[in-house]
Amino acid sequence: RSSMPEITVVITAYRLEKQIGGCLDELLGQTFQDFNVLVVDDCSPDGTAGVIRGYAAGYPDRIRAVYLSENLGSPAKTRNAALDSNLIDGKYVLFLDGDDHVEPDLLECLYSACRKEGAEVAVCAYDRVEVETGRVLCHELKWLSGAIGLPPAGDEVAFLNGALWNKLIRMDRIGTLRIPDFQVGEDTAFALKVFQRCGRIACVPRELAHYQVRADSVIANTQEATMRAFAGELAAQYAAARDGWRETIALLSFLHIGLSMALRAADNPSVSLGRYLKSARAYMRDTYHFYRGMRCMRLSSLRRHGLKGLVVWLSLWMYRAGCFRLAVGANRLLTRLFHVDFKF
C-alpha cells in the first residue's frame, strides 16, 4: 500500500490452522477497505504459520506477519509483541483472535462511529456462541447508543466488556501502554487505562462480533494467581485514579473480581472456591471499604440495569454478610438448567 491505512487489524494466532483462514477471509471481505492486517503467530506447532504465509504471499500489500521463534505462552505477550513490532501503522487499531467471527461491516461501523462522535474508541455489541453446538449463549451491549463522555458521568463504562476484539482504538491513545501479563482480565485492565486517556467512547448497538466459547478456553480454567494479579492491577488503578474515575473502577472491580472471577473459581476444580471468596471479601473490605458511600453501588443507580443491576446489588449485600457462596451455587444451577451464560 502506498500510504498509511486508517486501521491496522492485529490478529494473534496459536494452533489455529483450521480457523485462521476464515478470520482472514472475513477481514478481506470488509465493506471498509482502508486497512491492513498484522498477524502474529505464537510459534504454533501445527500448520498455522503455513496458512498465514499463503495469505501474506497472496496479499503482500494488505497482510504482514510476525512469526515468533518461541511460544510466549500468553495472549498479552503476543499482543505486546505486535505493539512492539513497529508494524502497526494505522491511525486506529483493532485486536482480534484468529478464531473470531465478525460481520462484513465491522470496520466500517466502528470507524464511522469514531468519526461521527469525535471519539478515540468505538465499541460494538456482540454475542457469545458455543463452538461445539453453535448455540448463542448470550447477547451483550445491545443497550449501547450514541457516545459516552469521559470521565464517565454514569456507570456505563464499568458494564462494557473488557475484551479488545469489539473495540477500535486510536493508536496515539495507546502510546507506550502495554497489556499486563496475566491470563484473564488483562484486556480489561488495559482497556481501562486506555479509556482514562480518552475523551469519548462511540457506541454501536449492533452485534458485529461473535465470540467463540470453548470448553477448554483459558477463561474456563482460570487460576488463582491470575485472579490475584487482576485484582491487584485494578486496586492499583483505583489508587492512582482521578476522582472522576474512582467509582467506575470500584464498580468494575466488583463486577469482575467479586462476580465473574468467583464464577470462574466455581467452575475450576483446581481452585478452592471457599478460599477465593474469603480473599475476595477481604479485598473489597480493605481496598474499597465494601463500597460504602459510593453512588454507583446504590440500588437507585443499579436498578437502571434491570435484573443484572438487581443481581449486582444483592450480591454486594451477600458479600458483606459473608454468604455469597449461595449466589454462586444458584448461578451454576441456572446456567446448567437453562444452558445460558450470565455475563457481568
The percentage of residues in β strands lies in 15-25%
| pLDDT < 50 runs, ≥5 residues | none
Shape: globular
SSE string? EHEHEHEEHEEEEHHEHHHHHH
Q: What's the end-to-end separation, in Å?
A: 41 Å
Largest sheet: 10 strands, mixed
Instruction: Assign the structural class, choosing from mainly alpha, mainly beta, alpha/beta, alpha+beta, or little secondary structure.
Output: alpha/beta
Rg of Cα set: 20 Å
Note the total helix count: 12
Mean pLDDT: 93
- Helical content band: 40-55%
Work out the number of β strands. 10
Give an overview of the whole structure.
It is a single chain. It contains twelve helices and ten strands. By secondary structure, it is α/β, with parallel strands linked by helices. The mean pLDDT is 93.
Question: What features would you highlight for this structure?
Answer:
344 residues, alpha/beta, 10 strands, 18% strand, globular
Quickly describe the structure:
By secondary structure, the chain is an alpha/beta fold. It has 12 helices and 10 strands.
